[in-house]
Q: What sequence folds into this?
């Protein structure tokens, strides 16, 4: 769908004057980087039941199968680069301290974009709150230790599966699976950010997975404005002041990628 310049201007103006912003992203922001989404015709959940591959019970039943699937996903994501939407967001965030990026994505691409925009030695980029974990982090099933890992997964046998460097027990992906709770502190930080923000920018999520989906509603209930970027209507569209029904790569640089104009507050 064509991008309406008045919607772009409106979103840009809201963002330009907002003292504090929270951004919620989902799989759609990474779709144009080549990372598969979950729902929809090409989505991961089209051919697999989530509880068969992304649940603690499934891992207990057959860790080799689950690691095979995550190994495949890790390879796919490792070959992907941040796109213009990740980069525009990283640039926008670098210039501000009152912005929180909350993502449901486990691909780590917000972090890659932030480091590439700021440079490895710059301490400024605040890393996103990764509500559902990160596919390049592993966790020990016994001692709970978490560590970064980018090596290829050998799921040929149970013996070759990744093990904890501390206690040698079986490792699992550091991802929140179905039926598991999100990290309490991360969740509380995300909802605090939503309450305080004047604008919630929602990019590429179907808005059906809780509690992440409520972040926009919490911001709206506290008086904030919601801007949504998604080619499709979602449950969040109903509470959005501005809905940009187009792709993240088209919309996000358009609304964030330039400096605020001098009279931006006049058009709010
Ligand atoms: P979904 O796959 O449910 O939704 C992706 C959304 O992105 C859809 O609404 C699409 O319309 C939209 N979209 C597709 N291409 C886009 C593009 N180029 N630009 C912008 N938007 C686009 O993914 P999520 O909402 O992220 O959880 O899913 C939420 C959670 O459900 C995931 O984190 C995952 C999954 O089960 C866990 O694994 C715990």
A:
């Amino acid at each position: 769908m064509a991008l309406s310049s008045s919607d772009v201007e409106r979103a840009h103006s809201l963002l330009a004057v907002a003292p504090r912003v929270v951004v919620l992203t989902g799989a759609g922001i990474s779709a144009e980087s080549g990372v598969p989404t979950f729902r929809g015709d090409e989505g991961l959940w089209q051919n697999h039941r989530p509880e068969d591959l992304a649940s603690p019970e499934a891992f207990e039943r057959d860790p080799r199968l689950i690691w095979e699937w995550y190994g495949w996903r890790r390879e796919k994501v490792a070959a992907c680069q941040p796109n213009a939407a990740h980069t525009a967001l990283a640039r926008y965030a670098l210039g501000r301290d009152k912005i929180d990026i909350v993502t449901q994505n486990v691909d780590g691409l917000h972090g890659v974009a932030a480091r590439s925009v700021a440079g490895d030695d710059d301490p400024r980029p605040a890393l996103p709150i990764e509500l559902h974990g990160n596919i390049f982090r592993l966790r020990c099933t016994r001692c709970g230790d978490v560590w970064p890992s980018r090596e290829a997964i050998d799921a040929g046998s149970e013996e070759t599966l990744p093990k904890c460097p501390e206690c040698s027990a079986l490792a699992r992906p550091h991802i929140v699976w179905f039926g598991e709770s999100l990290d309490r502190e991360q969740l509380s930080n995300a909802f605090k950010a939503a309450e305080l923000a004047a604008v919630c920018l929602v990019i590429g999520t179907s808005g059906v997975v809780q509690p992440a989906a409520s972040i926009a509603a919490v911001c709206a209930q506290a008086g904030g404005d919601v801007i949504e970027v998604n080619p499709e209507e979602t449950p969040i569209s109903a509470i959005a002041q501005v809905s940009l029904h187009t792709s993240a790569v088209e919309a996000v640089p358009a609304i964030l990628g330039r400096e605020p104009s001098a009279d931006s507050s006049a058009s709010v």
About this structure: The two ends are 24 Å apart (CA to CA).
